[in-house]
Amino acid sequence: RLAILFLLLNRETAICAAVMREMKTGLPFYYLPDMDHVRRNSIFVPFFGVEAATLPMVSRLARVMQAKVLWCIATMQKQDQVEISEAWENFPTNDPQADTCRLNAELETFIRQQPDQYLWVHRRFKTRPEGRALTLLSFLNVNEIRIYENAGGGE
C-alpha cells in the first residue's frame, strides 16, 4: 500500500518558499488553479470565453522547480472517483500567459464533460478587468455554457 501526502495550503499559509521547500523533498503539491485571488499577481485569461483573474503560478512554479504538471480530477457521484492524468507535454513554455490560457482551456474540457461536478458558486469571475462586469452565467446544455459580460463594472 502506497501512502501519498499532499501539502494543502490555504490563502493565509500559501508561502511560495514553503511550497518549494516541500516539493524539493518530493512531496506532491495539489493546487486549485481556478480560484479568484483578486488582482494582485493575477493575469486575465479566458475561461469559457470570459477574461478571468488567474494566477500564472502553475507555469512559473513548474519552470522554477522543473516539476511535472498533471491533472487530478475528483468527481463525486455514487462512488467517488479520482482521475490523475499523464504529465503534460511541452509544459511549461517561456510564456506564462500562454501556459495559463492552456490550463484554463484544458480545465474547460473537463468541466464540459461533467458540468455538474464543477463548483460554480465559488465566484470564479469576481475580479473583473477594468470597466467589465459579469452579468449572467447560463447553462443551456453541456455544450453551451455561456457567460455574458457587459461594460461598466469593476470588481
Give a structural overview:
- The protein has 155 residues and is of the alpha+beta class.
- It has three helices and six strands; from the N terminus they run αββαββαββ.
- It has helices spanning 16-24, 57-65, 96-113; strands at residues 43-47, 50-54, 72-75, 81-84, 132-141, 144-151.
- It has a two-stranded antiparallel ribbon. A two-stranded antiparallel sheet has the order 3-4.
- A hairpin with a 5-residue loop joins strand 3 (72-75) and strand 4 (81-84).
- Helix 2 (57-65) crosses helix 3 (96-113).
- It is globular and about 40 Å long.
- The N and C termini lie far apart (48 Å).
- The relative contact order is 0.15.
Structural features:
single chain; 155 residues; alpha+beta; two-stranded antiparallel sheet; 6 strands; 23% helix; 23% strand; globular; disordered N terminus; disordered C terminus
Got a strand count? 6
User: Strands across the major sheet, in which order?
Assistant: 1-2
Radius of gyration: 17 Å
Structural class by secondary-structure content:
alpha+beta
Average of the residue pLDDT scores: 78
Could you list the spans in which at least 5 consecutive residues all have pLDDT below 50? 1-13, 151-155
Form type: globular
Question: Order of SSEs, N→C?
Answer: HEEHEEHEE
Number of helices: 3
What percent of residues are in strands?
15-25%
Helix fraction bin = 10-25%
How far is the first residue's CA from the last residue's CA?
48 Å
**Main β-sheet: number of strands, strand sense, barrel status?**
2 strands, antiparallel
